[in-house]
Structures are given as C-alpha cells and as structure tokens.
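Supplementary Text 2. Reproducibility record for the structural model of the 53-residue chain.

All settings were left at their defaults, and a single model was retained for analysis rather than an ensemble. We include the record here because the model underlies the residue-level annotations in Supplementary Table 4.
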Amino acid sequence: MRTLQAYRFALDPNDAQAANLRRHAGAARFAYNWGLARVKAVFAQRDAEKSTA
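Retained model, structure tokens:
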C-alpha cells in the first residue's frame, strides 16, 4: 500500500516579485509559441513536399 502526500503553497509576492513573475510567464509564453510555430512550419513543409512528389 502506498500513501500519497500533497502540499499546498500560496504565493504572496511583493510588487517587484509579481512583476518578475509576469515577465517570466510572458517570456515562457513567447518561447512556447515560437517553438509551436516552428513545429507547425516543419509539418507544413513536409506536407507540401509530399504533395509535389
């Protein structure tokens, strides 16, 4: 038998920390969207190459 344990944390950042959290989230969103666009471009290129062959 296995016992699972969980912890719950609450963040209470000050104004500077909250600004840094928002900046980090924005950078992560930008990086994710950039990577997603690259993957979609590669798939689109592969589909285009298949249709001409």
